[in-house]
Amino acid sequence: MSVRGNRHGGSADRAGVGRPQGQLAPYTGAPSTGGAPAAKAVPRYRLHGALEMFAAGDGDVYLLRGGSGPEHIINSPGPADRALLRELATNGLEIRPGSDAGRRVGPLIQAGAVVREPDIAALAPADAARFIRQLPYFEDFGDPVAAQRRLRVSSVAVLGCGGLGTWALAALASAGVGRFVLIDDDIVELSNLNRQVLYGVNDLGSPKVTCVARWLAGFDPSITVDAQRRCVRGPHDLAALGDCDALLLCADWPPYELARWVNQASLTLQLPFVMAGQQPPLVKLGPTFKPGAGACFGCHETRLRREFARYDELAHARIAAPPAATTLGPASALIGSVLALEVLHLLLGVWPVATHDRVFLLDIRTLELRSEAVAHEPECATCGTRGADAADG
Ligand SMILES: [Zn+2]
Predict the structure, then answer these.
(1) How far is the CA of 310 from the centre of ligand 1 (A)?
(2) How far is the CA of 344 from the centre of ligand 1 (A)?
(3) What phi and psi, each to the nearest 5 degrees, are found at residue 147?
(4) For an engineered disulfide with 295, which of 76, 84, 108, 299 has Cβ 3.0 to 4.6 Å away?
(5) How far apart are the CA of 272 and the centre of ligand 1, in A?
(6) Would you state the pLDDT for residue 375?
(7) 382 alpha carbon to ligand 1 midpoint, in Å?
(8) CB of 141 within 8 A of CB of 348?
């Protein structure tokens, strides 16, 4: 098969790989193991996990992405190419370099539509079975097995095991993150159970970090947990998180100050962090701050001060008498899951993540979504000149 072209010229066995007129975004994925040195074994290939083959009645074969829009169209493939496509979409296929099949499939490999089969044997057998359904998603980011292994050796700090924290933890544990540092001082109360998904009535009165650690151990014994029942009273209380890859800020007390402390620790430790919150019907997703790559929380506050002259006065009032926050389980689930997605992408090296230097505000009634950028502020008292302008870092 050849891109936009044809090995044979005639329509009977012509298999041009093209795109439908002008409606498709260009495909940007990369073959999964394209850079790997040639192994002795004949390499196996298959259709990219995110693509679905659809042989249409008009004789063309569509490679669909996301269930609808065509990603590639193979015009009127002949029987040999059809057979190849079928194998690639089902069992996968050994393809020797320089072979006839290699020449036919080459353009699809180059386009990222056909990828090397991942070396599942490089995963522990239990991990291979547990994560087999998500590996195709990782194909967009490189070798999916390497991505899965990377998650296993990743370490995520979760500050606050409440509504957002428990949903995010469940999602990240499901995805295969190998280590968590949990920081929370609270015990489980009945009023937590409208949103804090990892607890039940049997946990009432128990420390949350203990309950989360127990849940994680039951869910996946290969996960390592460092459960720290304690309060955070300043950036120094986060100084030991230097071995973590990311931090999830899922606590909101004390208001403003906690985010400032996390921000300071983030800059000191070069530790990216994600924050979020809710005030139903609005939920706030992001921003993600990555030291050396744009804004910090101090920059965010600098802008808010500029836009609202009484920002600091309001902050002081809220610190003195924190308002009772409204929470809702489904909103916590949504936010926690988005936080987990952002961290997942961050751990996999997908950059920028959607919430990098950006806040998304979602109305949970209308599902109307808007977003606001958070820019580095040169006059930011916290990151000063350190932030921005290494913005590609
Ligand atoms: Zn800053």
Answers:
(1) 20
(2) 24
(3) -65, -45
(4) 299
(5) 13
(6) 96
(7) 5
(8) yes
Alpha-carbon dihedral sign for residues 65, 71, 73, 78: negative
Residue with the bigger pLDDT between 229 and 15: it is 229
Q: 373 to each of 98, 300, 358, how far by Cα in Å?
A: 49, 9, 4
Q: How far does residue 297's CA lie from ligand 1's centre (Å)?
A: 6
- Nearest-Å Rg of the Cα atoms of the chain is 25
Going by pLDDT thresholds of 50, 70 and 90, the confidence category of residue 66 is confident
Domains and CATH numbers, the chain: 2-116 (no CATH), 153-390 (3.40.50.720)
| Residue in 144, 160, 329 with CA at minimum distance from that of residue 231 | 160
Taking the centre of ligand 1 as the mean of its atom positions, its distance from the CA of residue 369, in whole angstroms, is 26
What distances in angstroms separate CA 313 from CA 47, 127, 256, 309, 317, one per listed residue? 58, 51, 12, 9, 6
Distance 386 CA to ligand 1 centre (A): 8
Residue 340 backbone dihedrals phi, psi, to 5 degrees: -65, -40
Helix 144-152 and helix 329-347, axial crossing angle in degrees, nearest 10 = 110
Reading the block at residue 307, the tokens are 């836009």
pTM recorded for the entire structure: 0.85
In the sheet with 51-55, reading across from the earlier edge strand, the strands are: 2-3, 16-18, 70-75, 61-65, 51-55
363 CA to centre of ligand 1 in angstroms: 28
User: Rounded to the nearest whole angstrom, what is the distance from the C-alpha of residue 380 to the centroid of ligand 1?
Assistant: 5
Consecutive H or E run containing 303: helix 297-307
CA 158 – ligand 1 centroid, Å: 22
Cα separation, 275 vs 249, in Å, equals: 5
Q: How far apart are the first and last CA of the chain?
A: 39
Asked if 382 and 256 count as a contact pair (C-beta separation under 8 A), the reply is: no
299 CA to middle of ligand 1, Å?
4
**Residue pair 37/78 in contact by the 8 Å Cβ criterion:** no
DSSP 129: H
Q: Is the pLDDT of residue 35 over 90?
A: no
State in Å: Cα 77 to ligand 1 middle: 56
